[in-house]
């Protein structure tokens, strides 16, 4: 089975065709078990800009107060989640939309990044504390394709936005997925981004951990998520370009991008 993380920058506009979701639908209809985790960064940015909020950042992290979180939750668990589920249903896929906390799937804890040696409160931003994939196993057994938005609650019912890559990694690990496929806006992991000739086609998890400190900028969260997925139980990770249909089709056929193996 495959856990797919579909980046927000690759999501379709309303009422437009989406060849990537069509490819995912085709793989599902051909018999592949799939869980889809989505992001929504561009959609969140647009919604916050429209309201003129969410401009405060600390060390690159958006400060997510209650007003900002309410917008984030509305976009992720409303607009984006429903658009994907509706599209898949229109492609004859029996899709079910969930927030990450539904059915006890994920319990969050507050994330406080370390900045200049001190933990910093950035509001309603969380990380995965506990995961129980039983609801996903039940849905897949019954022939559904679960679609998950990366919004979860803690044990007190307080909501948090969690990085979608890390949600996909946790889900893939808990399900012991054959592959966790991260569809992003680059062709894979580069040893020296943005040098296109430094693309890594295949690497073991041990070697990736050894060279992880050398990565910078946008490669860091992708590498972190790949390591997390395999460390928590997934058998492999593939990072591929979700904005290019050929790359997506190759990835669904276990080819292309960067393969990280256990």
UniProtKB/TrEMBL annotation:
- The residues that the entry says bind substrate are 40-41, 62, 161
Keyword check for rRNA-binding? no
Annotated pathway, please?
Answer: Amino-acid biosynthesis; L-arginine biosynthesis; N(2)-acetyl-L-ornithine from L-glutamate: step 2/4
Q: What is one Gene Ontology biological process annotated in the Swiss-Prot or TrEMBL record?
A: L-arginine biosynthetic process via ornithine
List GO terms (cellular component aspect).
cytoplasm
The protein's matches in SUPFAM superfamilies, at most eight in alphabetical order, are given as: Carbamate kinase-like
Aspartate/glutamate/uridylate kinase domain sequence ranges: 1-241
Assigned keywords, A-Z:
Amino-acid biosynthesis, Arginine biosynthesis, ATP-binding, Cytoplasm, Kinase, Nucleotide-binding, Transferase
Q: Does the keyword Disulfide bond apply?
A: no
Give the reactions, separated by semicolons, that this protein catalyses. N-acetyl-L-glutamate + ATP = N-acetyl-L-glutamyl 5-phosphate + ADP
- Functional note: Catalyzes the ATP-dependent phosphorylation of N-acetyl-L-glutamate.
Give the record's family classification: Belongs to the acetylglutamate kinase family. ArgB subfamily.
Q: Can you say what this protein is called?
A: Acetylglutamate kinase
The gene behind this protein is argB
């Amino acid at each position: 089975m495959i856990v797919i993380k579909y980046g927000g920058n690759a999501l379709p506009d309303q009422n437009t065709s989406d060849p990537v979701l069509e490819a995912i639908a085709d793989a599902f209809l051909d018999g592949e078990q799939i869980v889809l985790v989505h992001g929504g960064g561009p959609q969140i940015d647009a919604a916050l800009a429209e309201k003129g909020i969410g401009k405060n950042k600390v060390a690159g992290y958006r400060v997510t107060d209650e007003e900002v979180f309410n917008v984030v939750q509305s976009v992720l668990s409303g607009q984006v989640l429903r658009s994907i589920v509706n599209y898949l249903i229109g492609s004859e896929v029996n899709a079910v939309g969930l927030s990450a906390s539904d059915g006890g799937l994920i319990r969050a804890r507050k994330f406080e990044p370390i900045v200049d040696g001190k933990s910093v409160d950035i509001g309603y931003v969380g990380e995965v504390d506990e995961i129980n994939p039983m609801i996903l196993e039940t849905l897949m057994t019954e022939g559904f394709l679960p679609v998950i938005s990366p919004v979860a609650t803690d044990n007190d019912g307080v909501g948090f936005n969690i990085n979608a890559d890390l949600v996909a990694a946790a889900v893939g690990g808990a399900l012991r997925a054959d592959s966790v496929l991260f569809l992003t806006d680059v062709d894979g992991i580069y040893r020296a981004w943005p040098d296109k000739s430094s693309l890594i086609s295949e690497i073991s998890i041990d070697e990736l951990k050894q060279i992880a400190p050398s990565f910078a900028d946008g490669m860091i969260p992708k590498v972190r998520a790949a390591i997390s997925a395999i460390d928590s139980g997934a058998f492999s990770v593939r990072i591929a370009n979700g904005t290019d249909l050929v790359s997506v089709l190759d990835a669904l056929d276990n080819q292309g991008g960067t393969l990280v193996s256990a």
